[in-house]
Structure formats: structure tokens, C-alpha cells
Write a structure and sequence with these properties.
By secondary structure, this protein is mainly alpha-helical. The protein contains 21 helices and four strands.
């Protein structure tokens, strides 16, 4: 069986085992879930190590250049004189996919370790957890739009229940808000997907197709079809291709999230249990960025380049707005949630530059932020599980009683603010290099956007360092007094095992960014060349 198919469906097999086990064995559910994620991580490492580099493996709009492909007929309908409808189970990866796959596999292991704090309805929690695991991996592997959409939608239901059943006091509100935001984007994405299907024909079979790679080739569009480049059809007075791009962009921008479509994120993070917050920040936001690259930019390159200014502007607004909001927060988890809005703004800015440096920086930022946000939300969960409080002003001098915890917090904070030597510095630097280079290379972005992006890094340093000073240094002063003093024990073995690899990865990627760049470079070059940009 294809390795990607095994990677996708391994979690659901373990989930089925848990579902069939009697509830009296609930103590073993967490070990089975951890085993599932470790098996998946092992396969992810094997795929990464055996992934081939070179111009012949750039992927993007060349089906033969994707690796570990599997294409099987799935749904076949005879439409009579109109031909056949064939939907394939079609999976494969390029350089951009493989790095996000490996990152997601690591994050799911950490989320599994964090889920050991869950005490109620363990069977339901871990089954939903593993269904979600399958869905997010499936999104990064799918090359058929119909299959992509199914995995994309499948993420929604487990997250809704994981937040709504195991979340905080306002969990129902946060879950419904998340559900409605995501469903809003997905419903309209379905309409564009159908329009693309009716516009594109497979050059071999002559049938309409959901093949994403075929959708990238303008020659495969029927003359006069709604999304043909030469089409003059309009929707609401706007060119149909522009409307299609905007709808798809909104659907993925909700996931990123891009301001002003971000308001579900702080509520979802604050109310979600720690493992769900880890998955939301570490993986779900990257699904949005990946979708913009794989679908929006690749299928509608002409519209994307024509509107690069507005994409860059939204990126800058997200960077500054997220950073300023983080600076004003008194809840530690909400602060980190807004910092995610700011950091993901660099992804959109890098993509909007349409330069090799900018897009490479955007992918690196997704990988780096995946690890760092996982580390940050895990650290918040450590304190919250002990005293059920996250108020920044309710803690002072934690370094005196939790020195090991403080060390990991300092690593996570300094890495996230872009300190040289850590992964976020490389990612943000390349995104800004792309933004600075864009005006002179293709004239898509003005110079002031790169300057504003740099200001976002400064604000990031401000809110992280101020939080570090308030919570961890000075004389010990806790809101809960001696009760908190006893409860706030330092890190246990499980927590150290979860945090140590994340700290090491953040440092290693900062020193050896080629671990990511070597894998993504060919795909990024192919994408830039496909955009007809130098």
C-alpha cells in the first residue's frame, strides 16, 4: 500500500480500536493514541528522508514531478452524451507538502502527550482526536479537489466537539463561532470547486476533472467556460476568475486567520483544552496558508499577482493588529493567540511578494510557527492545569519556584520574537527580504510594507519580553498565595519529554534552515516560474 495512504489512515485504524474497546480499559486509550501518533511520525520521518530533490521533482503543475503518488478511481458516473464523471483518490506530495507533513506529525505527538490531562469521556475524546489527525494529514496529501474538500470539511466536526465538550466555561459559544466561520468559507468554496470542475477537462480522457494539477494549466479549460482565462463572463459585475479567487482566498484566510476574519481564533483558543489549542495553532492555521499556495495562487496566478498589493496589505494589517492586541492582553493564552495572528501575517506577506525568498520564508514561517506555537500553548497548559488560572498579572516571580519551566518559557519566547539562531528569525527575515525585493523585481509590493513588517517584529519583542518580566522575575507574588505556591510544581517527566524536542527543533532549524529549504526550494522555484516572475 502507498506510504501516504498509510500515513493518512493509520490514526483512524487506532481510533477504531479505541472505539471497540470497553470503557473499563479507558486508562489505555492515551497510550494507544500516543502509539498512533508515534507510528505516524515514524512514517513521516521516512518520507522526509526518502524525498528526492532536484528540478525534476518541483511539482506544482507537473503531475509526474509529485512523489509517493497514488491515483485510484473512486467515484464513476456515466453521464451519457455528456461523458463521465470520475473522481479519483489522488494523493501525492511536493517539497512544500513534505515539510508540513513532518511538522504536523511532530505536533500530533505533542498534542497526544498534552491530552493526558483530559479526565472525562476519554473514549470520545481520543476517537475524535484521531479522526482530526487523519483529516489534517489528508489535506496536505490530496491532489484531487474533491478529496481535498472532504478532508478539509472533516476537520470541522471533530474540532467542534473537542472545543464544545472539553473546553472552558464559554466552550459552546467558541465552538459555534468557529463552526460558523469555517462553514461560511467552505460552502462558497464548494461552489467554486464545482465551477472549476465544469471548466476543466482532462486532456487524456476528455472528461471534466477535479484534478488540482490539471486546474493549474490554462490549456485544460474549455473555451468560454466560466473560469477560462479568456472568459469574459462576470459575476456581480466582476470577472468570474476574480470572484473565484476571492471566494477561495476568504475560505483559506479564515483558517490562517487573516484580519478581519480572525475573531474566532482568540475565543476558540481560550476555551479549547490544551491539546486542541496545540492542533489549532500548530496545524490548522497552516492548512489555511497551504491552501492559499496550493489552490488560490496556483490555480489563479493571474488574479493573485494582479491583487498582490491587497494580499500584502492584509498581511501587514494582520502583523501589526495581532501584535498590538497581544501587547494589550492580560490572559496569557489570549496573548499567544493574538501573537499567532501576527506571525501568520508574515506568511501572507511572503506569499504576496511572489519572490523565491518571500515564498520560501512563508513556508519556513509555517513550519517554524507550527513548532513554536505548539510549545507556547503547551507551556500555558502546564500552569493552567496546576492552578486553573492564566492571568498574567496573577503571577510574579515564577522563576524562583519553577526554574526548569522558566527556561523553556524563555526559549519559546526568545525563539518566537525572532532572536537570531532560532527558526523564526530565518522565516521572518526571508519573508521581509522577499517583500523588500518585490518592488524592484516585479513591482507588486511597495517598500513601506516591508518596513511595517519589521515593526511587527519589534512589537513582538515588546509583548514577549514584557510578559516574561511580569510573570517570571521579581519577588514571588501569587494571587492564590500559599495554595498556589504548593500547586505550582516544576515540570514533570512527561512535560519535559514533550517540550525538549520542540526547543531543540527551534534551535536546529535556526542554525540549519537547509533542513527545510533544501526540500522546498525546487517547488518554490517551480511556483515562481509558473507565475512568470523572475
Amino acid at each position: 500500500m502507498n506510504i501516504l495512504t498509510l500515513l493518512i489512515f493509520t490514526p483512524i485504524l487506532f481510533g477504531l480500536i479505541i472505539a471497540l474497546m470497553p470503557s473499563k480499559w479507558r486508562g489505555s486509550f492515551k497510550y494507544i493514541t500516543l502509539l498512533a501518533t508515534l507510528v505516524q511520525l515514524g512514517m513521516g520521518i521516512w518520507i522526509y528522508c526518502n524525498f528526492k530533490s532536484g528540478a525534476a521533482f518541483g511539482g506544482i503543475n507537473h503531475e509526474g514531478q509529485f512523489q509517493f503518488m497514488q491515483k485510484l478511481p473512486w467515484i464513476n458516473l456515466d453521464l451519457g452524451t455528456m461523458g463521465k464523471m470520475q473522481i479519483d483518490y489522488f494523493v501525492g506530495i511536493d517539497g512544500i507538502s513534505v515539510t508540513l507533513l513532518l511538522m504536523s506529525s511532530v505536533v500530533m505527538v505533542i498534542a497526544a502527550l498534552a491530552s493526558w490531562e483530559i479526565t472525562s469521556n476519554l473514549k470520545g475524546f481520543f476517537v475524535l482526536f484521531l479522526i482530526l489527525d487523519m483529516a489534517v494529514i489528508g489535506v496536505f496529501c490530496s491532489l484531487d479537489f474533491f478529496l481535498f474538500y472532504i478532508f478539509y470539511e472533516l476537520m470541522l466536526l471533530p474540532l467542534y466537539f473537542l472545543i464544545g465538550m472539553w473546553g472552558g466555561a464559554r466552550r459552546e459559544y467558541a465552538a459555534i463561532k468557529f463552526f460558523l466561520y469555517t462553514l461560511f468559507g467552505s460552502v462558497f468554496m464548494l461552489l467554486v470547486m464545482i465551477g472549476l470542475y465544469l471548466s476543466v477537462k482532462d486532456p487524456v480522457t476528455g472528461n471534466h476533472t477535479f484534478n488540482i494539477i490539471q486546474m493549474m494549466n490554462p490549456a485544460n479549460y474549455e473555451q468560454g467556460s466560466v473560469f477560462s482565462i479568456l472568459s469574459h463572463q462576470t459575476l456581480f459585475g466582476i470577472q468570474a476568475r476574480t470572484v473565484g479567487f476571492i471566494i477561495l482566498f476568504i475560505a483559506f484566510a479564515i483558517k490562517v486567520p487573516v484580519v478581519p476574519l480572525h475573531t474566532w481564533l482568540p475565543d476558540a483558543h481560550v476555551e479549547a483544552p490544551t491539546p486542541v489549542s496545540i492542533i489549532l495553532a500548530g496545524i490548522l492555521l497552516k492548512v489555511g496558508g497551504y491552501g492559499i499556495i496550493r489552490v488560490c495562487v496556483s490555480i489563479f496566478p493571474d488574479i493573485a499577482s494582479a491583487n498582490a498589493y491587497w494580499l500584502g496589505l492584509l498581511g501587514i494589517i494582520s502583523i501589526l493588529y495581532g501584535a498590538l492586541n497581544a501587547l494589550a492582553q492580560k490572559d496569557l493564552k489570549r496573548l499567544i493567540a493574538y501573537s499567532s495572528v501576527s506571525h501568520m501575517g508574515f506568511v501572507l506577506l511572503g506569499i504576496a511578494s511572489f519572490t523565491t525568498e518571500g515564498i520560501s520564508g512563508a513556508v519556513m514561517q509555517m513550519v517554524s510557527h507550527g513548532f513554536l506555537s505548539t510549545m507556547l500553548f503547551f507551556l500555558v497548559g502546564v500552569v493552567y492545569n496546576r492552578v486553573h488560572d492564566r492571568g498574567i498579572n496573577h503571577f510574579r516571580g515564577l522563576a524562583t519556584i519553577m526554574p526548569k519551566y522558566t527556561v523553556f518559557v524563555m526559549i519559546a519566547f526568545f525563539a518566537s520574537l525572532g532572536l537570531p539562531g532560532f527558526s523564526a528569525f530565518i522565516a521572518e527575515a526571508f519573508s521581509l527580504v522577499g517583500a523588500f525585493k518585490s518592488p524592484s523585481v516585479n513591482g507588486l509590493l511597495p517598500y513601506w510594507m516591508a518596513v511595517c513588517g519589521s515593526l511587527g517584529i519589534l512589537l513582538g519583542a515588546a509583548y514577549f519580553l514584557w510578559t516574561l518580566q511580569r510573570m517570571f522575575f521579581g519577588r514571588l507574588n501569587l494571587k492564590g498565595g500559599s495554595v498556589w505556591r504548593i500547586a505550582l510544581t516544576d515540570l514533570n517527566l512527561r512535560e519535559k519529554i514533550a517540550l525538549a524536542p520542540l526547543a531543540i527543533i527551534a534551535l536546529v532549524l535556526g542554525i540549519m534552515p537547509s533542513l527545510v529549504f533544501d526540500k522546498i526550494n525546487d517547488s518554490v522555484l517551480a511556483l515562481v516560474q509558473f507565475m512568470h516572475l523572475k
